[in-house]
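Anyone else keep sequences and structure tokens together like this?

Example one:
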Amino acid sequence: MRRLEDSVFDEPGHFIALLLKGQPFDPETTKVLITAFECSHAQLDHSDRSHPLIAKFVAKLIIDFANQGERDPARLSKLVLECLKE
């Protein structure tokens, strides 16, 4: 049996989609957040990209910034990557 951590990396956007279930975002905003996640995920080092805790942290940061009102995927990605550098 595959674990959740194994299956979510078939498509990186699936990970944030799982975390977005139950969140109050409309379908268009959900697409923006998935795009931001995929962009952020693609810019990580290879070893970071394969680690489920890093992906979960990235997804949670994107959701947090979106809850603060940010809707630009490039800006969301930039904010996330800045947090990861700290």
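And example two:
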Amino acid sequence: MAAGLEGAAVVATDAVISIGVGLVKFATFGLAGVVNAKVIAIALLIGGVALPGAFLAKALIERLPLHVHTAILDAVVIVGGAAMVVNALHVHTAILDAVVIVGGAAMVVNAFVR
């Protein structure tokens, strides 16, 4: 969006980033020794359930006008950022509050700046 991506390119970019983040998490937790057969089974189950959603999203994106898709993405980012700020106000750890409030505010501001 802010990088000039539109429609399916936004979804594809998000998918690639999610795979990269997932691999880094898996490696980190694997090295920490907390990945066991149960964790892997749950991850595969979640992935298997989420896979049809990717095809549904593709079908929706192909049918949605670009401005509607962009508005939906903006709304999701704004709501997510606002939820982070509200959640941080309920947590009483000062450093965590500051980090989450700044991150949430940055997400909301970024949604409006293109």
